[in-house]
């Protein structure tokens, strides 16, 4: 891999960097391909989502510039759960579930990061956290932390309002210990994370310097919008996953195609690999041209996650729906095949159809949207919550739309 002597400046220009502890040293390391950096991923599900996407793309950019990524999955910290930005305690997961999720993460990350000897590493903090001796740990590590300082940390802010458990209070210390272990085991000299992780990351940097001396090279940097990226990972109708079995390539494409006008150029800069000069030209676009920018964004990101073929199919499917009022070629429109088990007395009700298609999360959501006139079937508005569709109609296929831009074709075998 060729070194990019200006990757730091490019990351700045793309709006990816916010706070840094040692800017000059960080610039020198990443520009000269000498950074071994880590980003952590808590395995709270069996798929990464859009909220992780920006971090994966950052790792890809830095690896292409000659730096070495360490993807840290939280097989240990996942047993506690990060309290950052949360108002409630995370649900407890079994060791088996956590380990399964970690394996799923690695498969997805391999689309973005090249793993192997002298390349990227995938590390699980369960290796050093699950078998800790508590007394030794608090004597060796806990002594370096001030409770007063910890209580002022932003990561505990919301949880303090409802009651911060001692379990969660340990999270900062364990994340800081992660950085120490990665520094000692793998020469990891830098950590990246969202702005909501700043307190935890500073704790790791300080732990290394207190324990190993002020000359220890440990540096911290945050992504400007990673916490916003986490918000982007969820929509009103559920999460946007990178796993095609959870979010189809078509729905992934549509998510980005429907992004707000104010966000499209920001996302093009932060998340695509298009030249900045090309994106800067789009700054002059307005009106209908912004739709073209959204199509470019959706195509680029769907290609990164699902490949060029799936991106092309999603694009064709989207254009078919909007051509001639949705009367175009339906070949690439996402489709759900219904079996006899999905039908009741040889038909399906509109509420069940909306839920089974994934257009609605629940029957109550479906009922509300139908009553409010937000649902059409084959171009005709459906306002009767008791409307049903026969197997004969389903064998031909029906096209359900919720809102203006959410479609699914249902067909019975």
Can you tell me about this structure?
By secondary structure, the protein is of the alpha/beta class. 46% of the residues lie in helices and 15% in strands. It has 20 helices and 15 strands. The protein has helices at residues 7-13, 23-31, 50-64, 95-109, 126-129, 134-140, 147-151, 157-162, 166-169, 171-186, 198-212, 226-232, 249-257, 264-271, 276-282, 288-306, 308-322, 350-356, 363-371, 391-396, and strands spanning 17-20, 36-41, 68-73, 121-124, 190-194, 219-223, 234-235, 238-239, 335-338, 347-349, 375-377, 380-381, 388-390, 398-402, 406-412. The strands form 4 sheets. A 6-stranded mixed sheet has the order 1-6-5-2-3-4, with helices on both faces. It has a 5-stranded mixed sheet with strand order 9-15-14-11-12. Strand 5, helix 11 and strand 6 form a beta-alpha-beta unit. Helix 3 (50-64) packs across helix 12 (226-232), helix 10 packs across helix 11 (198-212) and helix 13 packs across helix 17 (308-322). The longest helix is centred in the last third of the chain and has 19 residues, at 288-306. The protein is globular, with a radius of gyration of 24 Å. It starts with 6 loop residues before the first helix and ends with a strand.
